[in-house]
Amino acid sequence: MSTPKKQVILGAYLGGVNHHTAWWHPEAGSQIDFDSFEHTARTAERGKFDFFFLAEGLALRERAGEIFDQDIIGRPDTLTVLASLAAVTEHLGLAGTINATFNEPYELARQFATLDQLSGGRSAWNVVTSFDAFTGQNFRRGGFLPHAQRYERAEEMVAAVRALWDSWRDDDLAADPERGRFVARPDAGAFDFHGDQFDIRGTFTVPRSPQGRPVLLQAGVSPQGRDFAAANADAIFSPYGKLPEAAEYYRDVKARAVASGRRPEDLKILPSASFVIGDSEEDAWDRYRTIRDEQVTGQTALILLEQLWNRDLSAYDPEGPIPEIDPDPDAAPIIQGRAFLYQDRFDTAARLREVSERKKLSLRETVADQFERGPLIGTAAQIAEQIDTFVQNDGSDGFIVGSHLVPSGLDEFVDRVVPLLQERGVLRTDYAGSTLRDNLGLPIPAAAAPATP
Q1: 147 labeled part of a ligand binding site
Q2: pTM score, whole prediction
Q3: Structural domain spans, the chain
Q4: Kindly report the CA angle at 250 between 389 and 95, in degrees rounded to 5?
Q5: 9-279+374-448: which CATH topology?
Q6: 97 belongs to an annotated ligand binding site
Q7: Does the annotation list 151 as a binding residue?
Q8: Name one Pfam family in it (predicted).
């Protein structure tokens, strides 16, 4: 008897202010107008995607004290956008990135619990951390946290938020026949949480989530990050888009989840991916190379390397070789506000030099070759096969899909690739339930059985 094929999870993201977005394209729309968010979300729901995802930037990025040109359009508030999208969608999950370092448990728990009530159980919190003073200067606490303590605070934040979400029990709403309505019991929402980071007590104001608790998302690459994500998250954003290393990451994080007392299937692994569809494979690759060269200009390549090198590289020729000088991790950061993704600057710089020499690529070409997000390239049938093969071979449980063209780029994926995934039997033709947990196949936490008045 053959094993049933894994179902592909799909999330959609709207490209924000970065070089991946083709803001110069004649068909490109605004990255902050509500129409763009609505179009992307409605398209994702039409394609039976599991959720719509928004990243967040808490500060405008800077290079040597000057704001990036791409950031001048601004960065709208995540929860406001998601609450608005709850009114124009019915099944699509609504996932937002909110920082655990610069927010407080009560406010954050209340916001996501409210979004969950407004959407009928479709909210998700992507837990991220920060330790840099540049971002922190926008907040009362500034850069108060040492790097080593960011996960300590995040873990306690998650525990506190869950305590608040769980403060309403299954029987906290009782029928009042005389008044013809339900009323809360006297101790409903009572909480008392004490830790090294938070010391709070009081009454939580939002009843039990329709899905028990909002879904938790996280990204973990370092050993500490993997442990945190495996113990706490419902889904993890994977940085790996190629099978050998992606499968190893998949096995490692699932094993860590089991070591934390969880079932491996209760933790979903999801890398992000862009896509380029062509009428033939050759056409797709031609389109991809054109788009990539427009995205990675000489200036963009230098800025991306400057973050790694932490040096002013403006004197280098983008069409010349990779710099021979070493990175300077001890200098004041030249790039501020951009997430740092490298575990070792020196090893990464050496790898880039090796790739540049082996492939005979210029500095700009090397950055374009090595800094991409694992794009899916080919005909619609080839991309459907790539996704199916990757998931069935445990590279992931699905993908977070985005396009270089905002907001209409996702339409092509939904119109051409989604039907082929459905024909393969690996993507739903209709939603399984009404909540995000239902559609992701995630259990309701034992401590969070929803109220049933």
Answers
A1: yes
A2: 0.89
A3: 9-279+374-448, 297-370
A4: 90
A5: TIM Barrel (3.20.20)
A6: yes
A7: yes
A8: Bac_luciferase
